[in-house]
Amino acid sequence: MENSSPSEIKLKTYRWVRPCTIVWLVLIALTLSTLAVGKFELIDVMGGRPLVAFLLITTFIKGVMISDYFMGLKFVRRRWRIIPLIYLIIVCSLIWIAYNQN
Amino acid sequence: MERGLRLPFFNFEYKLILFNRQMFKRFLTQKQSKDDYPPGDLVIWIFIYAELLVFGVLFLAYAFSRSNNLELFNESQKLVNQELGALNTLILITSSFFVVRAVSAIREGKVEQCGHWLLATMVMGSGFIVVKIFEFSEKFAAGISLSTNTFFTYYLSMTAFHFMHVVVGLIILGAIWWKNRRGGYNQEEYTGVETGASYWHMVDLVWIILFPLIYVIR
Predict the structure, then answer these.
(1) With respect to CATH, is domain B43-216 assigned 1.20.120.80?
(2) Distance from C-alpha of B20 to C-alpha of B23, rounded to nearest angstrom
(3) A19 close contact with B: CB closer than 8 A
(4) What is the pLDDT of residue A50?
(5) CA distance A5 to B198
(6) Of B35, B56, B82, which is closest to A91 when you measure between CB atoms?
(7) Closest Cα to residue A67, out of A53, A87, A94, A52?
(8) Residue A83 resides in a domain
(9) Separation of alpha carbons B193 and B174, rounded Å
């Protein structure tokens, strides 16, 4: 039987669950929630604005997760990280404005 | 003579404090230090930001065109296949995860493992292509084309434009995989892998916005 100290077990657990794996699982969950909104036509059932806001916020979160963790911009100087961040804020905000014009 | 006796002691103490302060400062800067440049070749980042700008303009053009043709866009949107759109999103997210693993592997010096992850990424990317071709053929078979209406002009042009980026991404990843197979990358030199990975993440990032915008939000 293999004897492992608690710290070794903790290290092994950490190595198995990498941050990118958690990000991947969160992205999958958010995508499935987006599909659920579309598939069950929740926008028509529950009213548009709150769900459009929900979809745009999840899109923003997914975008930030990709740029921060997958692209690795969280670990470089802020000027590089801030470009996709501003991009996502502008695009999502203007889409929100366009969808609330009527 | 007195000064001579005092100064060495003073200097020693001072140096010790200075050393400790330098150590402390170094510790702080090490903890907070970030790379000056993003991973991969700097040129790819200029290209990535330019591409994001182009897609951003298309997204906003779609969103504001929709506000002038609300009924047309809502009715036409019912004809797009949400399941296939979601499937392609899952495929691209997973492929992005695989390419992250490929970069991690090469940074750890695991050349063979990097190749496997790159291959897995390409398989997922090819899956995206297959699903997209199926989706396009479904639409063309139903008599839908670029000239059907404004919604389908945007839908087909934006997804086709993105499709081309996926194809280019697959070619880049294929070239990186080939170079890696021939021993072109190792723990010290892996800029090419990071460059290709960054491009592939950009393709993923664009689709992350494209999917809810065209397939879901109405």
Answers:
(1) yes
(2) 5
(3) no
(4) 84
(5) 39
(6) B56
(7) A87
(8) yes
(9) 11
